[in-house]
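Example S7 (structure tokens).
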């Protein structure tokens, strides 16, 4: 008779999963750090999240502020800051497309493929570093707004919730821009394609002007625009003038929920798609 020794496999499998997860997180951290080092070596890469937000805030507040009358009154400066946060964070998401396209064109991704690393770490590291730059962008817009007289009238927790919604939406958009980077042949084409898509998305919204006086078709598009939902939600959380709250469109009546749904939907669609496009682009 032979004795059979049973070796429990569950702890071994669990240990392997844990080691794999730690390695994946380390790979993401290293690649996130790499992207941040590139920014430190070339600070002008941050011009779209430092200089541009200040210029946009000053120009739009003082140019539009002299001609826009809010439907129910209120300060245009307080109204505009949430919209300027939305516009700057939306357009700056193009940096994800440009960065990935540049890496693909330079051949550095081919070097990464020779390393024993988690392949999606390139995408996750890029998205996290761009999330940090989005936070810098939001800080510059908010600081400029405070200097020119903007004040969030709500409590600190509510205001921080508003900034959190903006950053979540920006992070979700960055995955969509990652897809643009995958299908573009150069950084220039990625930037051009991103502007063609994101600039109208940012402008045809309630970011800078109330939608009540827009033509019917444009008003419907603006009211269901995810940028409008995020902007209206944050105006509500900041307790700033929010004319969109009187609009009967569902996203305007449930702006916070609509913002969360849009962000989750964009992540659910574009994160797997970007991973698929990356694998196809980097497979011989």
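Recovered sequence:
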């Amino acid at each position: 008779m032979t004795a059979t020794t049973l070796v429990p496999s569950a702890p071994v499998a669990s240990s392997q999963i844990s080691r794999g997860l730690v390695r994946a997180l380390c790979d993401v951290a290293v690649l996130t750090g790499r992207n941040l080092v590139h920014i430190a070596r070339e600070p002008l890469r941050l011009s779209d999240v430092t200089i541009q937000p200040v210029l946009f805030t000053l120009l739009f507040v003082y140019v539009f502020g002299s001609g826009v009358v809010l439907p129910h009154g209120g300060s245009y400066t307080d109204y505009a800051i949430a919209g300027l946060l939305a516009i700057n964070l939306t357009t700056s998401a193009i940096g994800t497309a440009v960065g990935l396209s540049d890496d693909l064109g330079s051949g550095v991704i081919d070097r990464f493929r020779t390393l024993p690393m988690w392949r999606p770490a390139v995408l996750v590291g890029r998205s996290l570093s761009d999330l940090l730059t989005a936070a810098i962008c939001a800080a510059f817009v908010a600081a400029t707004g405070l200097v020119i007289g903007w004040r969030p009238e709500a409590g600190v927790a509510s205001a921080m919730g508003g900034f959190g919604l903006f950053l979540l939406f920006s992070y979700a958009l960055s995955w969509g821009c990652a897809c643009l980077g995958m299908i573009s042949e150069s950084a220039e084409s990625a930037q051009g394609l991103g502007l063609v898509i994101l600039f109208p998305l940012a402008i045809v919204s309630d970011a800078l002007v109330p939608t009540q006086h827009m033509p019917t078709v444009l008003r419907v598009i603006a009211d269901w625009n995810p940028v409008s939902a995020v902007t209206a939600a944050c105006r509500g959380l900041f307790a700033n003038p929010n004319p969109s709250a009187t609009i009967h469109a569902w996203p305007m009546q449930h702006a916070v929920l609509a913002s969360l749904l849009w962000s989750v939907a964009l992540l659910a669609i574009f994160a797997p798609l970007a991973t698929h496009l990356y694998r196809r682009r980097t497979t011989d």
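Notes on this example. The two ends are 53 Å apart (CA to CA).
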